[in-house]
Design a protein that fits this description.
single chain, 124 residues, alpha+beta, 6 strands
Length: 124
């Protein structure tokens, strides 16, 4: 396994231990997900974070490395609450975003997404 894969796994494990948002960003992300209909009205930050943790803990989650300009972002994708969720972290395991993926075939066709494998495979 190469160094980038090891860094991705370390970022995921860090987020599992302690879900951290950039300062002041958690409430805005939650409000946006509610506004877009990704989460029902009244969803709490704790409920949103629990959903994120379910995705991060799923052994059969797909793991991607998303590159924006030169910056890599570990990205974990799996079903939670019956819908396909994407969780994106920075390389330190800090939350970037988490949202529903409506058209996964189109979304992941973007060449900036490199599929690394299933989470369970990468952690072995």
């Amino acid at each position: 396994m190469n160094n980038a894969h090891l860094q991705v796994i370390a970022a995921i494990q860090s987020a599992r231990r302690s879900l951290r948002w950039r300062s002041g960003k958690a409430a805005g992300h939650l409000a946006k997900r509610i506004r877009l209909g990704h989460l029902p009205p009244g969803t709490t930050l704790g409920e949103y974070e629990a959903l994120i943790q379910r995705v991060l803990a799923e052994p059969n989650a797909d793991v991607y490395l998303f590159r924006f300009r030169e910056t890599p972002y570990p990205t974990i994708v799996h079903f939670a609450s019956g819908r396909l969720w994407l969780v994106m972290l920075d390389m330190d395991g800090v939350m970037e975003t988490a949202f529903l993926v409506e058209k996964p075939d189109e979304y992941f066709a973007d060449p900036r997404f490199e599929r690394l494998g299933f989470l369970q495979e990468l952690e072995e």
